[in-house]
TrEMBL record:
Catalytic activity, reaction form: GTP + 4 H2O = 2,5-diamino-6-hydroxy-4-(5-phosphoribosylamino)-pyrimidine + formate + 2 phosphate + 3 H(+)
Cofactor(s) in the UniProt record: Zn(2+)
Keywords: GTP-binding, Hydrolase, Metal-binding, Nucleotide-binding, Riboflavin biosynthesis, Zinc
Pathway the protein takes part in: Cofactor biosynthesis; riboflavin biosynthesis; 5-amino-6-(D-ribitylamino)uracil from GTP: step 1/4
Alphabetized Pfam families for the sequence: GTP_cyclohydro2
InterPro entries found in the cross-reference section: GTP_cyclohydro_II (IPR032677), RibA (IPR000926), RibA-like_sf (IPR036144)
Gene: ribA_2
Organism from which the protein derives: Microvirga aerophila
Gene3D superfamilies for this protein: GTP cyclohydrolase II (3.40.50.10990)
Protein name (Swiss-Prot/TrEMBL): GTP cyclohydrolase II
């Protein structure tokens, strides 16, 4: 009845985690109740207190543990004998948080719980309560095998497929077609914009662009995304055409809610404070989209070496790369410098100033 039954429970679990409901993560005979910390309220904390037996643990990513002052490269768990919302908030969410107890390792189940948080686009901090099955008080909760959570991203990629396509003439790029893909991670729609019907048998100009509501749509001065987006389409229209993949990866894949929490700080420090690794976007499904469009050889338009590496890793031939420049503004200069210094993006400030594409 279902195309891939192993994805069904994970997708239901994603929905429950986003709604602030607990889910059961299980493997073999072991089970933990997992719930996102960001949605916990006193009523839920009281309900959970009835099943904890004092052995609840707070699961935190290595990024958050580093922010709390530990030298960590792996996630960890902090004992939580009493479900104290204030302490949870302090450890998991607050800017002035500091670690207050020994940090233990995480189990296979815990890792799946943290992965569920990331798939659900909530802050990656989970409360985990080990349970001894059968647990009759929790019969209504969704139960998901840890193995299915771990395999989810890979499995979902196999289901990416084109669901619709139509010509959409753009201002300055008349011959343009939008091709919509569905079935991938989180069932979110991903869009390929084909400018001037490029011949897929040759080398095709390709830009992979992660969504940025603030920059792409509203022209935020804090980043260069809107400039890059419009400049690329214009260049493709004036040249031999190309493909722009517009990926639903708002906030470097952390979601718009988490991105807004990070405004005002260094962009990577802010993500680490919230528990996100510097940039954990994956671009493997972009390669699958290109392949479904018949493309095997690409000229990539980006400053981001990870995008090039991801396409090569997926087996596409990257024959050249070109920088994509935006306007430097007083508001984005720190953001651009961070991308250059912290993430190795190839951004040359002198060139930025010279090109200033939208001031043409
Ligand atoms: N987490 C977070 N994400 C941000 C912030 N500002 C912009 N972004 C996101 O950063 C991403 C930028 O993605 P891309 O346009 O693909 O660019 P890139 O990875 O910088 O690489 P290029 O191809 O060189 O442009 C988008 O998803 C934006 O929403 C921020 O302050 N915090
Ligand atoms: Zn942006």
């Amino acid at each position: 009845m279902f195309a891939d039954p192993t994805c069904v429970n994970v997708e239901r679990a994603i929905s429950d985690v986003r709604a602030g409901r607990p889910v059961l993560v299980q493997a073999g005979g072991d089970m933990v109740l997992a719930i996102a910390v960001e949605g916990l309220d006193q009523r839920m904390a009281d309900a959970l207190a009835d099943v904890t037996d004092g052995c609840a643990r707070l699961l935190l990513t290595s990024a958050r543990l580093r922010y709390l002052g530990l030298d960590r490269t792996a996630p960890g768990s902090v004992p939580m004998p009493v479900i104290d919302l204030d302490r949870l908030g302090h450890l998991a969410l607050r800017i002035n948080g500091r670690i207050d107890a020994p940090v233990g390792p995480v189990s296979y189940l815990d890792e799946a719980a943290l992965e569920l948080a990331q798939l659900s686009l909530v802050l990656p901090a989970m409360l985990a309560i080990p349970l001894a099955p059968p647990c009759t008080a929790l019969q209504n909760l969704l139960s998901v095998p840890a193995e299915e959570v771990h395999a989810y991203r890979r499995r979902r990629i196999e289901h990416l497929r084109i669901v619709s396509r139509a010509p959409v003439p753009l201002d300055g790029a008349y011959e343009t077609e939008f091709v919509v893909f569905r079935g991938g991670e989180g069932l979110r729609d991903q869009v390929a914009i084909l400018v001037k019907a490029p011949n897929p048998a040759g080398a095709v100009d390709v830009r992979i662009h992660s969504a940025c509501l603030t920059g792409d749509l509203f022209g935020s001065l804090k980043c260069e995304c809107g400039d890059q987006l419009r400049h690329t389409v214009k260049q493709m229209a004036e040249g031999e055409g190309g493909i722009l993949l517009y990926l639903d990866q708002e906030g470097r894949g952390n979601g718009i809610g988490n991105k807004m929490q990070s405004q005002g700080y260094d962009t990577y420090d802010a993500d680490e404070a919230l528990g996100f690794e510097a940039d954990h976007r994956s671009f493997d499904f972009a390669a699958v989209m290109l392949r479904q469009l018949g493309v095997e050889t690409v000229r990539v338009l980006t400053n981001n070496p990870s995008k090039i590496a991801a396409l090569r890793e997926a087996g596409l031939a990257v024959v050249s790369e070109r920088r994509v420049l935006g306007r430097p503004t007083a508001e984005n200069v720190r953001y651009l410098a961070s991308k250059r210094d912290r993430a190795g993006h190839k951004i040359d400030f002198d060139l930025l100033a010279v090109h200033a594409p939208l001031n043409d």
